[in-house]
Amino acid sequence: MYNFDYHKPASLDEALALLKDSDDAMVISGGMTLLPTMKQRLASPSALIDLSGISNLSGITLSGNTLTIGAMTCHADVATSADVQKAIPALSHLAGHIGDPQVRNRGTIGGSVANADPAADYPAAVLGLNATIETNTRKIAADDFFVDLFETALDEGEIVTAVHFAVPDQAGYAKFENPASGYAMVGVMVAKYGSDVRVAVTGAGPSAFRAADMEAALAKNFSPDALGGISVSADGLNSDMHASAAYRAHLVTVMAQRAVAAA
Q1: N or C, which terminus of the chain has less Cβ within 10 Å?
Q2: Mean pLDDT for the chain?
């Protein structure tokens, strides 16, 4: 690593002031992506602003049909929360299968969402569960949040403070994971809201996306069989040493069927 200054503010206002006053500073939450990147010298921020000392950025609350999770809440807490298990069991299942125990106890939902890794699990949850991302300045609808590979709608200096999930009637998540890392080669979240259905895919493309044809089919018949004849185009999907774009396209349909069965 290169030399850098380390700050651990006690409030969001203090963090924002440090971020504004520091050249090339970066915010760190769990550090699951940023620290390895720094160790490889692919990132060299002049300062790290650690959000772990800000107590009001973590926690889980269930109010009516909205489940709110603070940005600094770790994956393990989401997985084991009684409120999450009651309101959205699929989200508890998703969080409990992120990485390994070390990652789940350090990584945070806000860090994962802001990082927008194309193989992360939470982007599928955010899109599929019609979430709203709250920051220090505004609220952003899930459909407007993910832009491209590691790119979101966040402005420079904007910090995610919470994620608000709409509680569905039914929901399920299934992923085909890399056996070494636990990352989603393809993950699909399916959620039913009355007559509307949302199907969100992660791991397959440069960023999470919704599968409109699958949503339309499931709105008519919410069963795995409804997806049997629907395929996803491989154009623009990820292709690497782990899986070709064509194989990932095939997995989208398979994982979507499994997610509906789980729901």
Answers
A1: N
A2: 96
pLDDT tens digit sequence for 131-141: 999 999 999 99
Determine the Cα–Cα distance for residues 50 and 122; give it in Å rounded to an integer: 21
C-beta separation of 100 from 108 below 8 A: no
Mean pLDDT of 229-245: 95
What is the pLDDT, as a whole number, of residue 249?
97
- CATH classification for the domain delimited by 58-262, as one of 3.30.450.20, 3.30.465.10, 2.30.250.10, 3.90.1030.10: 3.30.465.10
Q: CA torsion sign, 214 to 219 to 221 to 224? A: positive
> DSSP string of 153-209?
SPPTT--EEEEEEEPPSEEEEEEEE-TTT--EEEEEEEEEETTEEEEEEESSSSS-E
Integer angstrom CA distances of residue 249 from 14, 81, 186, 243, 244? 45, 33, 9, 10, 9
Helix, coil or strand: residue 139: strand
